[in-house]
């Protein structure tokens, strides 16, 4: 048995393109991304929380640095040198990623959340799911339990 909770981080306007896509997704387009992060713990902390939301400022800052008014591009985008030149000229705030898609973004945020929780909670709590949303209609999720998460309550 475990307790769960979630926290939504929203308001990250950014743009990207899926250069391999044969349809309109190959063009630069933007969304205001949001992320809902689910947490799990077998034991509540000293305040009765799964996760103290006030301790997530590091994750919130990382989301802002990556997604707030930025241009996301795949590392293998054939126009990467052009995007880098535009970044150098101050026309866009470039972030190069392995995959700019929502599925990969959900997995990326899952990793960030668990890195933070592993340090802060020492295995007591983990992130088990992230939903990356590009708008009210479209979202992708990544779900996994990190191997270091304690599966039993300490006795």
Description of the molecule:
- This protein has 155 residues and is an alpha/beta fold.
- It has one domain (3-143): 6-pyruvoyl tetrahydropterin synthase/QueD (Tetrahydropterin Synthase, Chain A, 2-Layer Sandwich).
- It has helices spanning 57-67, 80-88, 102-121, and strands at residues 3-16, 29-41, 70-74, 94-97, 125-133, 139-143.
- Strands 4-3-1-2-5-6 form a six-stranded mixed beta sheet, sandwiched between helices.
- Strand 5 and strand 6 (139-143) form a beta hairpin.
- Helix 1 runs antiparallel to helix 3 (102-121).
- The longest helix has 20 residues, at 102-121.
- The radius of gyration is 17 Å and the shape is elongated.
- It starts with a strand and ends in a 12-residue tail after the last strand.
- The mean pLDDT is 95.
Overall strand count: 6
Oligomeric state of the chains in view: single chain
The level 1 CATH classification is Alpha Beta
- Parts with pLDDT < 50 across at least 5 consecutive residues: none
CATH architecture: 2-Layer Sandwich
What is the count of helical runs?
A: 3
Query: Number of folding domains?
Result: 1
| Biggest sheet statistics | 6 strands, mixed
Helix content: 25-40%
Mean pLDDT: 95
What is the general shape?
elongated
The CATH superfamily bears the name 6-pyruvoyl tetrahydropterin synthase/QueD
Order of helices and strands: EEHEHEHEE
CATH topology: Tetrahydropterin Synthase, Chain A
Distance between the first and last residues' Cα: 14 Å
Overall SS class: alpha/beta
Radius of gyration equals: 17 Å
List the strand order in the largest sheet.
4-3-1-2-5-6
Strand-residue proportion: 25-35%
């Amino acid at each position: 048995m475990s307790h769960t909770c979630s926290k939504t981080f929203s308001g990250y306007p950014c743009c990207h393109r899926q250069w391999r896509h044969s349809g309109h997704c190959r063009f630069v387009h933007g969304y205001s991304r949001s992320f809902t992060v689910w947490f799990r713990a077998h034991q509540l902390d000293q305040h009765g929380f799964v996760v103290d939301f006030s301790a997530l400022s590091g994750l919130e800052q990382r989301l802002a640095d990556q997604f707030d008014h930025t241009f996301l591009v795949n590392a293998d985008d054939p126009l990467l040198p052009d995007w880098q030149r535009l970044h150098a000229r101050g026309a866009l705030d470039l972030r190069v990623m392995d995959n700019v898609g929502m599925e990969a973004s959900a997995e990326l945020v899952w990793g960030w959340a668990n890195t933070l929780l592993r340090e802060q909670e020492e295995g007591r709590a983990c992130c088990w799911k992230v939903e990356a949303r590009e708008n009210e209609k479209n979202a992708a999720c990544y779900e996994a339990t990190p191997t270091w998460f304690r599966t039993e309550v300490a006795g």
